[in-house]
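Protein in question kept in full:
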Amino acid sequence: MLGCGPAHTVVLLRKRKSRCWIFPALCTMMGCRTSATWRTTMRQAPAVFRMLAPLIAIGVLAVGCGPSPAPMTAPSGSTAPGPAQTAAADKPLRIAPAPSSLNLPVGSLYKNPANNRSELVLADVRHTAVLIGDSQSMPKDSWPQQGIAAMGYKLHVVGMGGTGYVATNGKTGNYMDALQRGDWVLPFGDPPLIVVQGGGNDATQRATDAQITSNAERLLAALKKRYPGTTLAMIGTLARGVSNGGGRRTEIDALLGRIAAKHGIPFVSAGDWLTRYNAIGDLQDGVHLKPAGHAKLGAALAREFTSLGLTARPDSSASAPESAPAPAPAPAQ
């Protein structure tokens, strides 16, 4: 064999001791221009052999002069095969940052993927208490709002008149259904306090104890799951008291007290407040209070909540405070 490169060979054909022929053939390796010089060194070869020999040489060169295959390495028994390499494998994975009020404008809605509910971005959620209630809570200066504000909180009020734990008003669902459907929205972030007030419309619509208990516990469970670090509190049903014609309203007030005790939630009973605080004369329609009655019972509620340790905490003791969004810059003049 004669060499013309790392993987190139030329076949030397011999016949007898005294005769030697080298037959011409161009190497099949692309780009290689090497060729052998073919000549007869002894006597002239037989005619038949001279005709067949070039064909034999060309066939041998076609098989032997191709590119040498890469050597195969036997896999080691102690080495696991590596993962397939892709273009994405060289890029580090990015984890989407959790949203915060710093990058969400005040008043916007954030779709919480954990519960599929929209949540409202407040300007100062860490100083804002949430009030869920019925028509007793809806007026701007209602006694529940006045009592909570007196403890140092800002307020985010949700709910609707004519609703309750079971009761609906035809447009807005009961507390749990309204929350799930988005009839009203809770805040984005972690408010320090959530207060649930109600029960009067459940009495009017003759909801049973079992219905009220089931829906109240569902609501409390949903609030605890969404706001695990927030304090929950409950206000009972405003009524005249058992001995003064409180009736079903007073019964529901007591039922709500038992539910709150079961879950370890601070509870303020209002089942006899109309008589205890001499507020019957402050009623405007037998159920709802005039402004003077709201002020009177608002002060009473603030005292009760303060005794339960529900006053607003200073910033230094607030857990995981969240900064309010910076105001938008004024347009250039």
Observations:
- The first helix runs from residue 47 to 64.
- The longest strand covers residues 128-133.
